[in-house]
Write a structure and sequence with these properties.
Number of helices: 2
Keywords: Membrane, Transmembrane, Transmembrane helix
Structural class: mainly alpha
Number of domains: 1
Length: 101
Amino acid sequence: METVELIIKIALFILNVSTVAFIVIMISKWHKRMEDKLNSIQRYIHHVTDRNDIVYINQLEEIKRILIESERYEEADKICKCIEIEFDNLKERMKGWKTNG
């Protein structure tokens, strides 16, 4: 009777080990898939943010052009400084994203 119990215990042990191994493998695959999706979403967010920044800079350029046409040079100079600041910020963010991703 002891050998039958031993065989059952060994079979249950093997079943438990196989189950745990299967769960670990599935969780690691799920984790990898989630990392890939997260990286994809981060790349998309960076892309959209870059586009928004470029549109914002373009709008500032248009405002500057309109101010120059209406001979409001002091205000156009302020807008020009804003454009430079935004462009520098964009370059810094892009540099940071290239080193991180």
